[in-house]
Amino acid sequence: MRRMGTVIDLFCGAGGLSEGFRQAGFEVLAGSDFDDTAGKTFAATHPEATFLGGRIQDLTVSRLLEVTGLKSGQLDVLVGGPPCQGYSVYNHNRGVDDPRAGLFREYLRIVEGLRPKWLVMENVSGLTSIADGGIIREIQTGMKELGYEVDFKILKAEEYGVPQERRRIFFIANRIGAPIRFPEPTHGKDLKPFVTIWDAISDLPAVENGKGGELEKYASAPSNSYQAELRGNRKQVANHAAPKLSSTNMERMKHIPAGGSWRDIPFDLLPEGMKKAKRSDHTKRYGRPRKSDLACTILTKCDVHWGAYIHPEQDRAITVREAARLQSFPDGFVFHGSRTEQYIQVGNAVPPLLGRAVADALISCDYSLSREKAVA
Q: Model pTM greater than 0.90?
């Protein structure tokens, strides 16, 4: 007996969004992505699902139906996040002319053939400012023309227990006449306290710049429920090696206290391009967050030159595992590929806890899903 509804994840990457739905009780049947290395991570962490590699343009509805054993109209939820680099506020050349900016139309093509009951599409919040909201309107129109009622909202990951300031836009739609609700925040003022950086990573072993292994013993027992949940029954942690920084960067970090940034680096040690910067510029660069802070947005490259990615105590950049913890990935997620590829997989992902909150919101709207959960 299946536990709950069924899910297919387009543009799945390593599988952060589908992991959130799985945690909420859904059965993930398949994932599709162009990145075969991310696909190896997805396949290893979603053994119950089929990974389909290759371009989304070449993915057919008949293939999806074949590998899942479904018929058109039977899928409960189609989730996915079309590659967002064309929209991101970190891409200063963003716009509708970026070829990646039209991949949501491929999502809609699959919707037309699969006819899932629910749709969940996510992207970066910068989508709202492209072409005066033109892409937002096109997505809404496309879903409505296929018979779906749709709404969207920008969600803040930290309000759902993710120890990171991250804004994502979510489109939720259905064709079954159910109400559309977005998850209510669980963390923040008058709610549970935010999960901090130190809440997330304090049990991970210390590693030196350029050192660490693929398997390390934990430094301590879990000190809070967040660590306990993400660790599960694991005795060792993977993907916990620090990238090797240059001697110049190591010297710079010696001058940066917790809560500090590039402004604390002596002028003669600053990168040439930053010597002309105003004090108000580059607010996160060479940042060393306080233990009590939320992490800044985890990007695909946790480079200390571009953000607050210095460890709160140690003179080094955060590891892949620390980035994954700040994204709320369980430690059982072992990321495949080179270290660069691992950072990309983590940074591109939807935080699983945010995905789980969205999944729970769907359950609250759809009696058929909640009934299946009760039976399970």
A: yes
The CATH-assigned architecture of domain 6-188+350-375 is 3-Layer(aba) Sandwich (3.40)
192 bridge partner residues: 187
Catalytic site includes residue 365: no
The pLDDT score that the predictor gives to residue 131 is 74
Stretches in the chain below the pLDDT threshold 70: 1-3, 84-101, 367, 370-376
Q: What pLDDT, in 10s, does the model give residues 262-307?
A: 999 999 999 998 898 888 877 889 999 999 999 999 999 999 999 9
Please state whether beta strands 149-156 and 236-241 pair in parallel, antiparallel, or not at all (unpaired).
unpaired
The CATH T-level fold of domain 197-348 is DNA Methylase; Chain A, domain 2 (3.90.120)
Q: According to the model, what pLDDT value does residue 375 have?
A: 42
Q: How far is CA 227 from CA 113, 218, 263, 306, in A?
A: 41, 11, 33, 27
User: Quick one: pLDDT at residue 367?
Assistant: 65
The answer to whether the Cα torsion of 215, 220, 223, 228 is positive or negative is positive
3-state secondary structure of 314: coil
The token pair at 214 is: 């693929």
pLDDT at 229: 98
Helix, strand or coil, per DSSP, at residue 95: coil
All CATH 3.40.50.150 domain ranges of the chain, comma separated, are: 6-188+350-375
Q: Which one, of 283, 286, 288, lies nearest residue 303 by Cα?
A: 286
The whole-angstrom separation of Cα 348 and Cα 15 is 10
Question: How many C-beta atoms lie closer than 10 Å to residue 102's C-beta?
Answer: 14
What pLDDT does residue 128 have?
A: 84
Q: Both tokens of residue 351?
A: 């935080």
Structure tokens at 274: 């930053």
Catalytic residue among 12, 84, 296, 302: 84
